[in-house]
Amino acid sequence: MPVLWIFLAVLGLGLIAYFAGRSRALGTAGGDTRQLHSLPSYYGWHGFMLTVVPALLVLAAWLLIAPSIIESRAASTIPDSAIAERGSRSLVMAEVRRAGEAIDMAVEQGKMDAGLAANLRADFTDVTARLKETGAIITSTVTQPVLRAAQEYRVMSKRSGLFMSVAVLGLAIVGFAFAVMRTHKDFRARNVVEQGIKVILILASTIAILTTVGIVLSMLFETGHFFDKYPWQSFFFGTTWAPDFRGNSELGMLPLLWGTLYISLVALLVAVPVGLFAAIYLSEYAGPKLRAVAKPMIEVLAGIPTIVYGLFALITVGPLVRDWIAQPIGLGNSTNSVMTAGVVMGIMLIPFVSSLSDDIINAVPQAMRDGSYGLGATQSETIKQVVLPAALPGIVGAILLAASRAIGETMIVVMGAGAAAAQMSDGLGAIINPFQAMTTVTVKIVSQLTGDTDFASPETLVAFALGLTLFVITLGLNVLALYIVRKYREQYE
Amino acid sequence: MTDAIAQTPDEPRRVDVGSLMAHDERTRRRNRAERRFQLYGLTAIGVGLLALVVLLVSILSQGLPAFQQTFITLDVHLDATKLDKNGTRDIEEIKKVSTFGYAPLIKAAAEAKMEELGINPEEFGVTGKDAQAMISKEAAAQLRRFVIANPDRIGDTVEFEFLANGRIDGYYKGRVTMESAERDSNVSPGQLQLADALKQGGALSKHFNWSFITAADASENRPEAAGIGVAIIGSLYMMIVVLCLALPIGVAASIYLEEFAPTNWFTDLIEVNISNLAAVPSIVFGILGLAIFINYAGLPQSAPIVGGLVLTLMTLPTIIISTRASLKSVPPSIRDAALGVGASKMQSVFHHVLPLAMPGILTGTIIGLAQALGETAPLMLIGMVAFVREFPSAPPEGFFDPASALPVQVYNWTQRADPAFVERASGAIIVLLLFLLCMNMIAIILRRRFERRW
Known about the structure:
The complex is a heterodimer.
Chain A: H1 2-28, H2 40-76, H3 80-86, H4 89-108, H5 114-119, H6 127-133, H7 144-182, H8 189-229, H9 232-237, E1 241-242, E2 250-251, H10 254-285, H11 288-303, H12 306-326, H13 338-363, H14 366-374, H15 379-408, H16 411-416, H17 428-432, H18 441-449, H19 458-491
Antiparallel strand pairs in A: 1-2
Helix pairs in contact in A: 1-2, 1-7, 2-7, 2-8, 4-6, 4-7, 8-19, 10-13, 10-15, 11-13, 12-13, 13-15, 14-15, 15-19, 18-19
Chain B: H1 2-7, H2 25-63, E1 68-77, H3 80-83, H4 91-95, H5 99-117, H6 128-133, H7 138-149, E2 157-163, H8 166-172, H9 178-183, H10 189-201, E3 204-208, H11 211-214, H12 229-260, H13 265-277, H14 282-296, H15 304-328, H16 332-340, H17 345-374, H18 377-381, H19 406-414, H20 420-450
Antiparallel strand pairs in B: 1-2, 1-3
């Protein structure tokens, strides 16, 4: 791992720079720390920072950017005819990468000397067989253009690695020299170091923005590809979901969206009454003892990973719902159903609704309750007619947040709701039957993106369009909920 | 109140007061409504607690058997003529004998055992081949590993504990019964009776199975050998990555936002982003990881480093929110005092505020890590569902090796046909929940011990 070594070398240099900077500053002050502008360690940190930070930034940038440049250069050597043979550029490039790795392995194992590796000709020697000998995974015969590109790829990555080491270490040394030369007893080391730290802090806080940008861009980009291959009208308004990897798929989003909303509705029907009543009881009636026990117990439900709920749906709730409800009334005979997923998801959302509502109910000023009691209302009348109306906007916000959580939930629906999309053509009865298996947006994202994926086919790319739709819906709900909650908080502050 | 009077200009309605000791009908109705309302609240709490109890009991009752396993004890004669034909004890020569070469040894040992116990498999209508099938297919591999590790024992007779086949194991856990065995093509009632006979003879026993925790995953038809070792290592590697990235970045970001950031559009943008990221569905982070870390940056699939990066991005908002809360709870007088004795703003933060906020920060970090440990959906998209048999190597190379993760392993097992895997999935969940419990306990203890109320 040369990158690790470069990293360690830079850190080592930084350490030397720390001591060099410190001793130089002390030296110019004649060993008397009172003569220095800053504390001695600041001179050290100044050296360390100038040595390490720029070098590591360049290293990170290089590692991020170089692969795509090398890739595009290597890809440009492949003639279009070779691409047409294989179907797509990305497939050919995967082959190129594999061939490059195989050549590397061959050289490493001593089965091929470096000179030969650079001049291999697919037409003269049986390269494929020789590369397979090394144990590398070569799926098809290595053709001449692929081999050319692979060699180009190898040479370029080697050169890039070399340049990177030189650039990074060089930068570290330059930084080191500059820092040590600048160090002097009157040099304002502390101000410089603190400025530097502040920049690092700012960079750290922009990662949140970068993540959002990354999410949006990565999905927009691939969604664009998808809409090149599949009309957007059929995606957004299509009523049939029937992907077929041989082509001719129908990728209408509506059945998935219906499944998502239906399951979320069932989940909310479970979670909202239970969560809301629990919150009311805990904040208005419960004594400190009950509160101290029940509140954390309910919140434990929020700390349980969703895979546990998924398993619970699969092995306990699913069979229970089928054997005791669905089969006796003849509405379905599958363990996967809207009901199963909805009820289990509802349990997951109980603590979510209850703790948010609890906070909101507690924020209603006591004076309002006292006023109501003073008029002779009972406690429940006060709650129903004073506290709840006052807390209503906040509670609506909490429910919206819970809804957004339900829509984005994955594992419970993957394991509890099933994989078959709602069949709009079977009529209304079939699509509102809660004991039927139904699939959701998140389930389909998982199933289209796991296993063998081909990023050129619309069947895979549709997952990105679904992901973007999901992101937009949940973002909208969250923004709306936060807006309502914030508006409400202001009312009583 | 004037309104009320204005609405009833005629004689005010007389309320039949009655005795002060007895409630009138209306009061009783109101009190009943009050009690009903309280009951609804109690019921809701009861439903929540009941759900928790049912969830835990169901997982525990399904999963606890996974820690026990049925073993068959056999004395295997490591025949030198079969394992080391030339008698050179050359390890390379020994390695050439495949697991097929070991099967006859086990067969011979099994026959010898039954003879010794006076059991004739024919009595139960079990052929020699079927009797052989009662021992896990993993046994030959286990024997081979032993011989390669101890070539000098060739020629000796060594006692081994082999795993019993998943169906035989299921018989002792109540998953397989005589009736279900009738219909099952993989096991016959005769085999179960034979197993009972072996148990009476002391050759078959059920006890704690360490290999469930340490072993790697096993293929579809040998559930008895499947373990969660690789998944634990994979999860551990990911947690290391998350801790090393999310804690420094999260703390740095919170310090900036809480202590230094001016109120302007840029700060607002960051804040809005953080609160939104906290609510983005986790699967969207998986899509991000797939598109950027794997397809664009070219990192390997199923690698803990990619999982760690994705989980870091997911955990950051949690850590930032809790860190900011604990920074905020340090009273301003501390900062003022530091500034008053000549510290710079940066010094006051790093020397005074940060150490005082540390318990809160660590608590938040542990809770964030616990969240990340249980996360499944994003890991499925970055290829962690793959079947991984090899243990990843030691860090740092190990971060780039394929690995599994505990929750994904659970999902993986639930997708397999053999019901024995459901038991193992529940067992893995118990291990996962134990880890989470420990982490949360540490967080609570930290908070109790070190958090200061000002």
